[in-house]
Amino acid sequence: MLDIQFIRENAETVQKKSKEKGYDVSVAELLELDTERRSKLTQIEELRARRNQLTDSMLAQRAVGKGQRPSDEQIEQGKQLKEEIAARESELGTIEDKYLSLLKKVPNMPLQDVPVGASEDENVVSKTVGEPTKFDFEPKNHAQIAEAKGWLDKERAAKVTGSRFAYLKGDLVQLQFAIIQFVIAKLTDQAFLDEIIAENNLQVSNKPFVPVLPPLMLRTDMYDAMDRLEPRDDRYKIEDEDLWLQGSAEHVLGSMHADEVLSEEEMPVRYVGYATSFRREAGTYGKDMEGMFRMHQFDKLEMESLSLAENGLQEHLLLVAIQEKLMQLLGIPYHVLTKCTADIGKPNARGVDIEAWLPGQEKYRETHTADYMTDYQARRLKTRVKRADGTVELVYTNDATAFALSRTPIAIIENYQTAEGDVVVPEVLRPYMGGRENI
């Protein structure tokens, strides 16, 4: 959430930017509650000070009077102060609940370069790399190829679990694990990061990523602190447990250091997490229902970064550069979208999507997203860093897709398909598939 002091000092801007992001919040009401809250706190502190003075007076009186009991007037005064404090604390509790509820509704402020827009249709294409793949035959979509090859079985999955699930089999499974090994090999290689940093003229650490297999569930308070729990209708709740299935690996990676103070020497903290994720994906239809494009269960490789404040934006640009480099190495045509205010998400200060060209749909479709949250998540998570001079401040957080392990294989299958119905294995993946050139 935002710093209340920032909101006090920038009330008009916060109201305006919240509206641009599509959030209906009342900054004036929040600040009224803030004023009332601070007033109650002052009253409680004054009452406690009076009670402490009375207690000190009675203790001194007892010492001088050799065990003399407090007077009836002092006892009554102490009782009244205790009741007043309890009453004010009850009032404060009610105000605090309303105040925190409103404060949590205020979104993060978008950076200056984020386009103002009312929907994803106003996202801006900032770069296009490669030309849409051309074929001398009628290309198929991934579902047609995968089902013909016996790689994808949604019919039997529907029998066992219901719709929007699938059994993945054979070479498609091997392709997925080849992608995983390829990404982990690259992100743990300092030389690979040096190359990306130099190519993009970034001022950022070359510290490699640490691979993580995270839990697949998290508690409500952690999910809420990450500000990724909503919309709850899109999440899976574990019945009779205070647990949710995570919707993406960053939900359990970003919350890993909650209530911790890291040292400046540790920064940045970078993870690449592999997790099976779960989303209801309510309201989707049409082409998105075909094959494995939009499933209730899917695997992802996700990057998470915790950094110093002054390095947060550079970390964001690094993650985007990594995404682009990985796509280029696979040889998949793509374009980069700078997301507009309405599409970047509530905790985001900036957001970038990469969309791959899918010949089977004859359009670009999202395969990656990169989210820059500044200190918005860290404030509620209480994830901090102790600087060399001893000061303690909030970390800045970033997350970004390395590869979504449903959509990346889709892009490979559709862009590398042959007239015979086979799929050419991208050259960089062949060492992880026993040297095979086709599947």
Description:
The chain folds into 2 domains: 4-105, Helix Hairpins, CATH 1.10.287.40; 120-433, 2-Layer Sandwich (BirA Bifunctional Protein, domain 2). Helix content is 40%, strand content 20%. The chain is built from 13 helices and 16 strands. It has helices at residues 4-9, 11-20, 27-64, 72-105, 142-149, 154-160, 171-187, 190-199, 220-225, 249-253, 312-330, 376-381, 407-415, and strands at 124-129, 152-153, 167-168, 210-212, 217-219, 236-237, 243-245, 261-263, 269-278, 297-307, 334-338, 350-358, 363-374, 384-386, 392-394, 396-404. α5 (142-149) crosses α13 (407-415). It is elongated, with a radius of gyration of 27 Å. The mean pLDDT is 95.
- Could you tell me the mean pLDDT? 95
- The CATH first-level class of the largest domain comes to Alpha Beta
Strand portion, in percent?
15-25%
Count of structural domains: 2
CATH superfamily of the largest domain: Bira Bifunctional Protein, Domain 2
How would you characterize the largest beta sheet?
Answer: 8 strands, mixed
Summarize the structure.
By secondary structure, the chain is of the alpha+beta class.
Any descriptors?
2 domains, alpha+beta, BirA Bifunctional Protein, domain 2, Helix Hairpins, 3-stranded antiparallel sheet, 13 helices, 439 residues, elongated
